């Protein structure tokens, strides 16, 4: 096993995570969200009628962090929490269409990956490498 190569990959992943977080924070601020709130909003907008567990699994968030951000979005009337009338433990989350909240996932992704057109790269190769990395880490 080549420790230096693994260390290099790890360092690059940390740098990527930092850059993604910085880009996401800039976009979130434009819409009056923090990064976690924006991620949750976009996920619920993309996957309406989802629940907290599924949302946390998809986004890789801890339930406590997601709950805190979700409660703010609910208080701000951006997200609605529908409780199942028969089984009150079942909760479904959906977003509220607001005329001034035209936030879309595609725009957020294109802004986050704004340099993608400036560098020649193979998105397929990047995707394959990331799939390999996920398999290795599991």
UniProtKB/TrEMBL annotation:
Q: Which organism was this protein described from?
A: Acholeplasma hippikon
| Superkingdom of origin | Bacteria
**Protein name from the UniProt record:** MarR family
Record-linked SUPFAM superfamilies: Winged helix' DNA-binding domain (SSF46785)
Gene3D superfamilies documented for this protein: Winged helix-like DNA-binding domain superfamily/Winged helix DNA-binding domain (1.10.10.10)
